Amino acid sequence: MKNITKWSIAALFGLSVCTVSCVDPIKFGDSFLEKAPSSGELNQDSIFGKADYARAFLWDAYNKLYFGLPFYWDSWNSKMNTGMFETLSDCWHSHNSWDGVNRYYYSGSYNAAIEDNTSQTRYHYLKDRNWNAIRQSWIFIENVSRVPDMEESEKARLIAEAKVLIASRYFDLFRHYGGLPLVENSYGVETSYEIPRATAAETVEYIIKLLDEAASESNLPWDLGTDDTNWQGRFTKASAMGLKCKVLLFAASPLFNDASAYCSEEPQDAITNLQAWYGGYDVEWWNRCLTACEAFFSALNTNGYYQLMQASGTTCSAYRTAFNNAYFTRQNNTELLISTRVSGKYGSWWYQWTTFASYGGYTPTLEYMEMFPMSDGTPFSEDLLVDGGDPFFTDNDYNKPIRDPRLYETMLVNGAAYGDHSAELWIGGRENISSTSTETGATATGFRLYKFYKEGSLSNTYPQWPYLRLAEMYLIYAEALLKANRLSDAIKQVDIVRARVGLPGLVESNPSKNLTTNSDALLEEILRERACELGLEDVRLFDMIRYKRADLFQKQLHGLKIYRNDGGGDNPWSGTSGNSSEFPNKPSDFKYEIFTLSNIARSWWTNFSPKWYLAAFPPSEVNKGYGLTQNPGW
To answer: Count of alpha carbons within 13 Å of 535, Cβ hemisphere only?
Structure first.
């Protein structure tokens, strides 16, 4: 038996300082349960002796939810030292040589020992505050009943919220590690116990049990309604039911649910113990995902409120605004099912990630640009990259976009409106200064990050992270219907999402793909649609992982060099060729060169191993002997 203080999920016990504006500061630490109130410190009796303190305790646990954007230099908010998950996918590439993405993943130098020595890995088992939030939520669940000045209905509601919080933190861990130790109560500081790693299936069942219990609580509202302005971000019944669908989608996918395990490299303990695999394929996982989706949309039809944010007109600008409102805005957003946030406004002290982007940390790939269809719904064709052509606008008129509106909202492309001018992404343009076109900086691939970035003009808006929104629910439902061989019904769900940005349906846009009968082709379209709709929202990498897409991990990625056919192209501010006096008119004639990304290459392109699908546990944890087996290959 291991003493709890020796199990480093006793990060589990390192509850952080909670300062809430409406109550006194509450300090938490290993000994906070035992200390009498003094100088602002509250013990457990004091915390649960007053409703305001108890609420503040839960709100502090909410503060430990996952937030996807890197914004501060610490062990969890810097995200691989300014990296993001999606830069490990085929849609985005990091040209920031000093981030964890390049140091450990592109280089291929990542190994288990690194988990003990840095917080720059993609998701740290101990340092991402999962266990802090989980234990804090269990403490709340176990003690809120004794708060004297809180209605029983509110206690029940807050317990349900705490269960969703635990489930979300477990899901964050599960999609990186597989089966996990299941913490089912808070445990006392003197308790001795041993919690081994559970199977993958047991971990999923534990998460689903918590979500089902929360959703069945009558005091947990379906939506926040008029409370949205003050309380947006709190969990609801819709949050619980929607998250269940998202969890089951990942759980049903081939990573765990397949005839063979994802990795045959040693050690194989996690495979043998069914902690990183179910032991075979079971269609019931997909049936459960479909049932959960049907339950969610049935409840939506009954209760209403949630709906996709819609355009006010039929222009590209109107569709872009609707899409922006869907993923970015907080207030009056009827699409968000789960959103997380940090303190402060864009442009304030913490919004450093726009600076990180300038180093080239989030450069869109040519492959990603090509995923976005034309505005008439048809697939993009490289025929548009002929000399003198334009893959983004028509008739050399930058006011006439010809692509999926989401493209312009996701990445900056040549000629798009950008501040007081049209973006100059040609070699030598203002947004792509280098006349030698070295593959560096924010425009290293020929495109720039735009989603969540917004030209740095958001100093008066509060940030939120779209952890789960309704558009993703339609696409989850589509995939579950596809697996049930209901292809036409699946297409209808995808078309709902496409219609929001003015795109025609999948079938009419892809007449040669036989989408109503070809399930493989339809799956590719659903995954592509997820990439376009949910770009940089932590979806593409996990889609590649859950489908074990070694082909995509190994695929060489590309960028696009753009040259002016009028001969201009040096630095426009240098006073030489290309300046405004020599070329007074906006250039409109370009030629294109597709190039292979090589300045910063990924070892996966030549030497990929499926062991990369799941992360390694820190060896220091495995070596403590409480039953935490290492994942295959590590």
So the answer is: 30
| HSE (side-chain half, CA atoms, 13 Å) at 577 | 8
Look at residue 461 in the predicted model and tell me its pLDDT: 65
Residues 370, 392: Cα–Cα separation, whole Å: 11
Q: What is the pLDDT of residues 124-162, one digit of tens each?
A: 999 889 999 999 999 999 999 999 999 999 999 999 999
Task: Give the type of residue at 629.
Answer: T
Amino acid at 463: P
The candidate with the shortest Cα–Cα distance to 597, out of 367, 386, 378, 380, is 367
Strands 558-564, 590-596: pairing kind: antiparallel
Q: How far is CA 439 from CA 81, 172, 354, 360, 600, in A?
A: 21, 34, 19, 9, 8
Three-state secondary structure call for residue 86: helix
Amino acid at residue number 263: C
Peptide bond into 391 cis (omega under 30): no
Please calculate the CA angle 412-414-415 and round it to the nearest 5 degrees: 105
Query: What residues does 429 pair with on adjacent strands?
Result: 432
Q: How far apart are CA 331 and CA 333, in angstroms?
A: 5
β-pair type (421-422, 336-340):
unpaired
* 97 secondary structure, DSSP code: T
> How far apart are the C-alpha atoms of 145 and 99, rounded to whole Å?
46
Q: Are 177 and 207 in contact (CB under 8 A)?
A: no
Neighbours of 559 (CB within 10 A): 26
Look at the block and give the residue holding tokens 């219609």: 499
Question: What's the one-letter identity of residue 510?
Answer: N
What is the per-residue pLDDT across 239-257, written as a single tens digit (0 to 9) for each?
A: 999 999 999 999 999 999 9
E-state strands within 416-501: 417-418, 421-422, 448-449, 465-469
| Model pTM score | 0.92
